[in-house]
């Protein structure tokens, strides 16, 4: 998720996010301009245009519940990647061998 946040920041979007504990990823995102929160709380969703969820987020997460209560669109990681791809020219590399060396 931090890579998605970094891409959105590079594209000029405002990004906020939360994690259960502080770490290097939050420090990096803060340096890039994101507003980060340690811990999940309904207040973290205030003013959001969309909420992007990792598949690890449980259905009873307070930020997810608040987003739904407020009618804020909730996107999966894959849906956010599709939205990013729709804004830029993308190149996909596929196959069964050699991608790691490309």
Features:
globular, alpha/beta, Rossmann fold, 102 residues, two-stranded parallel ribbon
Helices, strands, pairings?
Elements: H1 2-10, E1 16-19, H2 24-32, E2 35-38, E3 51-53, H3 62-70, E4 74-76, H4 77-87
Parallel strand pairs: 1-2, 3-4
Helix pairs in contact: 1-2
Helix content: 25-40%
CATH H level, superfamily name: NAD(P)-binding Rossmann-like Domain
Reported for the largest beta sheet, the result is:
2 strands, parallel
Overall geometry comes to globular
CATH architecture: 3-Layer(aba) Sandwich
Q: Kindly report the average pLDDT value.
A: 92
**H/E series:** HEHEEHEH
Roughly how many Å apart are the termini?
Answer: 23 Å
Please tell me about this protein's structure.
With 102 residues, the chain is an alpha/beta fold. The chain has a single domain (2-101), classed as Rossmann fold, CATH 3.40.50.720. Helix content is 37%, strand content 14%. The chain contains four helices and four strands. The chain has helices at 2-10, 24-32, 62-70, 77-87; strands at 16-19, 35-38, 51-53, 74-76. The chain has a two-stranded parallel ribbon. Strand 3, helix 3 and strand 4 (74-76) form a beta-alpha-beta unit. Helix 1 runs parallel beside helix 2. The longest helix has 11 residues, at 77-87. It is globular. It starts with a helix and ends in a 15-residue tail after the last helix. The mean pLDDT is 92.
């Amino acid at each position: 998720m931090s890579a998605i946040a970094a891409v959105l920041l590079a594209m000029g979007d405002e990004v906020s996010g939360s994690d259960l504990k502080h770490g290097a990823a939050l420090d990096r995102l803060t340096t890039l301009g994101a507003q980060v929160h340690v811990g999940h709380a309904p207040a973290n969703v205030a003013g959001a245009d969309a909420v992007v969820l990792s598949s690890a987020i449980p259905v009873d997460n307070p930020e997810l519940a608040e987003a739904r209560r407020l009618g804020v669109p909730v996107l999966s990681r894959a849906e956010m990647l599709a939205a990013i791809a729709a804004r830029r020219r993308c190149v996909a590399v596929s196959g069964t061998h050699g991608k790691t060396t490309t």
